[in-house]
Design a protein that fits this description.
By secondary structure, the chain is mostly helical. The protein has one domain. It is about 80% helix and about 0% strand. It is built from 3 helices and no strands. The radius of gyration is 20 Å and the shape is elongated.
């Protein structure tokens, strides 16, 4: 099935995320950042080190997800472009 037909019939892959998902993540990040100082005040040095490690891993995972989403979108755009050029020829 051509990509344009998949988009028309709403046959989207499971990796697609609804628009509200990003807003939810922003709210969670905002709350996390506001409470981080309070949290760190009550932790031991070892716990702070673990927290920073987990925070760094979560940030790296988020960056990987963003790159993957960009690649999927780019590939879809290229498919749409090549299909439209093929239809014109």
């Amino acid at each position: 099935m051509k990509l344009i037909e998949e988009l028309y019939t709403c046959d989207l892959s499971a990796t697609d995320r609804p628009a509200w998902y990003r807003e939810e993540c922003r709210d969670i990040d905002r709350l996390k950042n506001r409470r981080t100082g309070e949290l760190l005040a009550g932790l031991t040095d070892h716990q702070k080190k673990l927290f920073r490690t987990i925070e760094r891993c979560a940030r790296e995972r988020s960056e990987l997800d963003e790159r993957c989403a960009f690649l999927l979108g780019f590939r879809s755009a290229v498919r749409l472009m090549t299909e439209s050029f093929a239809d014109d020829a």
